[in-house]
Amino acid sequence: MSAISKTGRGASRLAAIALAMLAGTASSAVAQDKAERVLSIGGAVTEIIYALGEEDRLIGRDSTSSYPEAALELPDVGYMRALAPEGVLSIKPDLILAREGSGPPEAVEVIRSAGIPFVDVPEKFTAEGIGDAVDAVAGALGVEEKGEALHAEISAQMTQLAETVSGIDEKKRVLFILSMQGGRIMASGTGTAANGIIELAGADNAIVDFEGYKQLTDEAIITIDPDAILMMDRDGELDTPPETVFAHPAVATTKAGKDRALIRMNGLYLLGFGPRTASAALDLAKALYGDDIH
Predict the structure, then answer these.
(1) Domains with residue ranges and CATH for the chain
(2) Which of 74, 111, 159, 172 is the most buried (most CB within 10 A)?
(3) Could you give the residue ranges of the DSSP H alpha helices within the chain?
C-alpha cells in the first residue's frame, strides 16, 4: 500500500481544514504576476527572490532559508521536506514557490487542493541548473526582465569560475562527509549537490560508484584514499570536531587524514546552488589548491 493511500484519511481531513481556512479571499484565484503574499520554500529559492529585488512580497519561508539574514525575520513554516499543510496555509500565501522535492507528497497535495498557485522550482546541481531556477522564479513572479539580468550575471560568474579552474593540472579527489554519527561515515556519491560543487571547484568526487548518500565501510574509505575531506559547518550535536574526524581509524590512514586536509563550509552557501554558488565554488577551489588559484 502506498504512503499516500495509508494517509488518505488524514489527507482528506487536512484538505477540509485547508479549505475552511482559506474560505473567502484566500481561496480565490490570484494571478501569479500579481501575487503579493509569496511563500518561499527552499534556501536557494529565497536567495533568488532577494537577488531579484522582490523580497517585499515575501510573507514566509522554510527553515532552510537562512540567507540573507533579513529572511530570518519572516515566519518559518518548517523544513522543506516535512511541511505541514496547516502551517503553510495559516499565513495565507497567494503564491508558493517551492524547490523541487519539497514535501512530503501528501502535504503538497493538500496544499495544492486549496487552490493556491504552487510552482516547483527545478533543482539541478549544475551552472545551467541555477539559471533554470532563476528563470522559473522570475517567471512565476512576473519579473522576467529582472530574471534575464540575474541569469546573465550568474552565467558570467560561472564562465569566469570555469576559466579560473581550467588551469588545474592535477585534480584533487574530495570526499564529502555528510555525517559521522556513531563513527559511521555517511558520504556523497554522484548526483548530489556535494558532487556538483566539487566538480565546479575543479576537483573530482572521490566516490563515483553510487548515486546519492550511503554509509561507507572502513575498507571503502581506505581504498578511496581521498586527498581532502569536505564537510558542512554545523551547530550543536550534529557538529563533528576536526579531532573526531581525524581520529577515525579509516580516515587516519588516508592522504586527507595524514595531511589533516579538512574543509568546512556553511551548508547553504556550499550546497544551495543559488546565486552565490560561483563564489562558493571559488572559495572551495582556493581551499583545495591555494596559490594555484588566481
Answers:
(1) 3-157 (3.40.50.1980), 173-292 (3.40.50.1980)
(2) 111
(3) 3-6, 8-21, 43-51, 85-90, 105-113, 127-141, 144-165, 193-200, 218-224, 242-247, 249-252, 255-259, 267-271, 277-289
